[in-house]
Amino acid sequence: MSTNSASSSAPASPDLRGQFPQVLLATLASAVGFWAWMLISPIQVFYAEGMQLSEGQVSLMLATPVLVGALGRILTGALTDRYGARKMFTLVLLGSIPAVLLVAWAGTIGNFVLLIVAATYLGLAGTIFAVGVPFASAWYAPEKRGFANGVFGMGMIGTAISAFQTPRLLNSLGYVQTHFFMAGLMLVTAALVWFFLRESPAWKPNKQPLIPKVLGTLKLPVTWQMSFLYAIVFGGFVAFSNFLPKYLVTIYPDQVDPVGAGTRTALFAVAAVIARPIGGVLADKFGPKIVALISLAGIVSLAYIVGQQPAEGILTGATFLAMAAAMGLGMGAVFAWIGPSTPPEKVGAVSGVVAAAGGLGGYFPPLAMGATYHAETNSYALGLWLLVLVGTFALVVGGMLRNTKSKA
């Protein structure tokens, strides 16, 4: 009698059927957001030549959306815990459309100040990542959250699409028409999310006031630990995805044109996208620490090779692809580390802070690369050495952390 009574009073497990299509739709929304976020970088030559921008102005133009997209993730992640991913995905996509149109206007009239204002606003699109992490986590059992966040993380394929497709759209449609196309795509995606995305039955809104919640998140050691590691792996990815077109046409001006640089940057992003869910699955199986350490070791060694500035060709291409894959593995591992180390009601807030740190990690390298560029030798070696040093320090810090495997 007591056994039956206990069984009847036990809470039923939430029905998580249909989880994979839901995460895929969130991944699509993220990909579109990432494309908009990186809309300026692939056609930076258009602005640099049309406005006669200096090296520092180009670096500022490329870095500004990254900074705002990074810091905004703290707020977006906390709001997702409270209002849910369906509302927040829709809000971010619709709210970013005016930013895309403002960029088009600034480029049309050739106003650099307005372009920086528009690029600042465009950073809103980059906050979309912080919406999907708690959403994907809520749809899967703890032991599969590395996989779930790895799949959602593939939304950064939008970076590759932007690098590959934006210069081609510019050539075929025209400058203003390219931005109208992007705005229309965001509108359609927002409609798909609003009508077809649904929250996980396991998700419950967190009504805690926003400021105390964020401050409480900052008191958790895991927040700072994962933020530092993610600033290296994701920050490095964002920095290279953003700056690589500029790097390639500067270092290899006779071998690489803007369209070719966009293609190479797209391949770089694809390699990281493919590696990210693999990193999440490996982290679920072996623990995130070992995967993160392998990732950091790869980044350090490959950044050293890039710093030697090898001749453009197979070696250079293979080095950048391997570096992207190492970063992707690390991204999957870090977010697999967050879930089992964080109270469930704070996953969104912690994810937002960590995602912000990753974005900030991508903000400073383009500025550093621009500041350390040596015109006489046509070299960014000093900036790459900084990556080697910081990555080595992260390798030491990661080795000191406790390994945490997900449990059912």
Q: Show unreliable segments.
A: 5-10
CATH class category name: Mainly Alpha
What's the CATH architecture? Up-down Bundle
SSE series: HHHHHHHHHHHHHHHHH
Number of strands: 0
Radius of gyration: 21 Å
Distance between the termini: 29 Å
User: Helices and strands: which structural class?
Assistant: mainly alpha
Strand content: under 5%
Q: What would you call the shape? A: globular
Q: Helix fraction?
A: over 70%
The biggest beta sheet reads:
none
Count of alpha and pi helical runs: 17
Total separate domains: 1
Task: Say what the CATH topology is.
Answer: Growth Hormone, Chain: A
Give me the CATH superfamily: MFS general substrate transporter like domains
Overall residue-averaged pLDDT value: 84
Could you walk me through the main structural features you see in this protein, from its secondary elements to its overall organization?
With 408 residues, the chain is an all-alpha fold. It has one domain: Growth Hormone, Chain: A. 79% of the residues lie in helices and 0% in strands. It has 17 helices and no strands. Helix 2 packs antiparallel against helix 6, helix 4 runs antiparallel to helix 12 and helix 12 packs parallel to helix 16. It is globular. The protein starts with a helix and ends in an 8-residue tail after the last helix.
